């Protein structure tokens, strides 16, 4: 193992990327966790806020997610996928869990302007102006309108695919296919490695 | 209705976006165990979804940093999984490993309800039979749309604790200290006006964490809520707050229940 020992400082961990940092975190390295927090809190909070809208609820869920990263870092297996997808999966699941519990469904209706489909401008508002987000937007633009709408409703909207089908007034099978085809096109456009 | 294999494979995208629920989710996860091409595709699509997430990055309030770092200092970490446990039959090693990485919370989902029932019936001997049945049915209805719940209820270290509140009614929690989570249900809490809500708190020696909101009582019961971030020594508190909840309690707790460590 060529991971730094606990206490060897975040900089060394940073050189190894998020995967190396998580290995340090799994061993109880608080400095590494601070670096992970600094790297991940904005994407985690941003995604959750995108789904939940309500800032206070989003903050609460984001805290839970980041604490879960601390608690479960030992369960991350770099051989089975990247660290960023691992964390973002936790974040997205927590957000949709919250959306799908009746409690917050009611609140969401009460507190949130009805705008399930977020357009590119909406994304842009919250985005840090960087190459990554430009690339995501360019690749999103490469999808068909139908694919883009389905992917966004499912991921950013936190809707199940039957809910997406209902919102769009199309058959279940159509939505399944659009989501999968759209994501595959995104994957190829962004040359995602996994 | 059982889905055809082909149909199942086209669910990779929806699964990667957490857009599956209930029986279909369980069925797809069983399928994943035997379908290495699906597992690989899901991995790629999850990585793609993560890139979509990065495009929404937004800096959280600065105060969150200190809270999370403090909570981490008080939170015990899970040990790594090892191969010490006996393998389950009929599940390939590769598939099991893939599940561990991507779906740790689902591993026990199918069995969770019967285990939850056993936990409730086994431990809460003081409670009336009809109340237990109600808790069980509450849990059953919630399980369909909240897989996180299942993992807590199925935890081998799950404890059940219960307490009366100062406003009447009881609060009951299934607690998994190992997971740092608890599931909270209540019965007999007085109804509140629409402008108010019951809010859960984890009360530590020096920190108070918001832990979710209760739904408005229906037939005297509230829906199960999963709270995370539990640390040894914390108590469960409930306060009445303005609708939507607050970041800090603004009224005196109606219950202050020690939780098992």
Tell me about this structure.
With 194 residues, chain A is mostly helical. Chain A has two domains: 1-112, Orthogonal Bundle (Rna Polymerase Sigma Factor, Chain: A), CATH 1.10.1740; 115-194, Arc Repressor Mutant, subunit A, CATH 1.10.10. Chain A is 73% helix and 0% strand. Chain A is built from eleven helices and no strands. Chain A has helices at residues 10-15, 17-26, 30-52, 55-72, 83-100, 102-111, 120-126, 131-141, 145-155, 161-168, 172-190. In chain A, helix 2 crosses helix 3. The longest helix of chain A is centred in the N-terminal third of the chain and has 23 residues, at 30-52. Mean pLDDT of chain A is 82; it is low at 1-15 and 110-129. With 261 residues, chain B is α+β, with helices and mostly antiparallel strands. Chain B contains nine helices and eight strands. Chain B has helices at 5-9, 12-16, 22-34, 36-54, 63-73, 93-102, 112-123, 129-143, 147-154; strands at 159-164, 170-176, 181-187, 196-203, 208-213, 221-228, 235-242, 255-258. A four-stranded antiparallel beta sheet of chain B has the order 1-2-3-6. A four-stranded antiparallel beta sheet of chain B has the order 5-4-7-8, with no helix packed on it. In chain B, a hairpin with a 5-residue loop joins strand 1 (159-164) and strand 2. Chain B is globular, with a radius of gyration of 20 Å. The relative contact order of chain B is 0.10. Classes of the chains: A mainly alpha (194), B alpha+beta (261). Chains A and B meet through helix 3, helix 4, helix 5, helix 6 and helix 8 of A and helix 2, helix 4, helix 5, helix 6 and strand 5 of B.
């Amino acid at each position: 193992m060529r991971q730094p020992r606990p206490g060897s400082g975040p900089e060394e961990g940073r050189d190894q990327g998020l995967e190396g940092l998580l290995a340090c975190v799994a061993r109880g390295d608080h400095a590494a966790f601070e670096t992970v927090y600094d790297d991940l809190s904005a994407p985690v909070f941003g995604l959750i806020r995108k789904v939940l809208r309500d800032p206070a609820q989003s903050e609460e869920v984001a805290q839970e997610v980041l604490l879960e990263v601390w608690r479960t870092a030992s369960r991350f297996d770099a051989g089975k996928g990247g660290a960023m997808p691992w964390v973002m999966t936790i974040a997205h699941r927590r957000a949709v869990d919250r959306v799908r519990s009746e409690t917050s469904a009611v609140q969401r209706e009460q507190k949130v302007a009805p705008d399930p489909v977020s357009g590119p401008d909406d994304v842009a508002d919250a985005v840090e102006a960087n190459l990554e987000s430009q690339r995501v937007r360019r690749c999103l633009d490469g999808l068909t309108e139908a694919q883009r709408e389905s992917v966004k409703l499912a991921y950013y909207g936190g809707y199940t695919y039957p809910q997406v089908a209902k919102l769009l007034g199309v058959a279940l099978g159509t939505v399944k296919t659009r989501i999968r085809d759209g994501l595959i096109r995104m994957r190829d456009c962004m040359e995602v490695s996994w | 209705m059982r889905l055809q294999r082909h149909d199942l494979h086209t669910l990779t995208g929806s699964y990667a976006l957490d857009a599956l629920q209930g029986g279909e989710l369980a069925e797809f996860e069983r399928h994943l165990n035997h379908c290495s091409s699906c597992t690989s595709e899901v991995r790629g699509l999850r990585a793609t979804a993560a890139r979509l997430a990065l495009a929404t990055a937004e800096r959280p309030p600065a105060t969150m940093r200190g809270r999370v770092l403090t909570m981490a200092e008080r939170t015990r970490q899970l040990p790594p999984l090892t191969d010490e446990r006996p393998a389950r039959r009929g599940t390939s090693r590769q598939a099991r490993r893939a599940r561990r990485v991507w779906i740790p919370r689902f591993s026990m989902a199918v069995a969770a309800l019967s285990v939850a029932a056993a936990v409730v019936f086994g431990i809460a001997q003081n409670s009336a039979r009809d109340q237990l049945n109600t808790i069980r049915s509450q849990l059953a209805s919630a399980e369909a749309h909240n897989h996180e719940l299942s993992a807590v209820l199925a935890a081998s270290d799950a404890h059940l604790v219960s307490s009366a509140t100062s406003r009447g009614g009881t609060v009951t929690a299934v607690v998994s200290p190992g997971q740092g989570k608890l599931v909270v249900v209540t019965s007999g809490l007085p109804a509140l006006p629409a402008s108010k809500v019951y809010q859960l708190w984890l009360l530590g020696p020096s920190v108070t964490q918001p832990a979710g909101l209760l739904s408005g009582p229906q037939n005297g019961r509230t829906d199960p809520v999963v709270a995370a971030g539990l640390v040894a020594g914390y108590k469960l508190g409930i306060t009445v707050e303005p609708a939507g909840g607050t970041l800090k309690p603004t009224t005196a707790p109606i219950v202050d229940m020690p939780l098992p460590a």
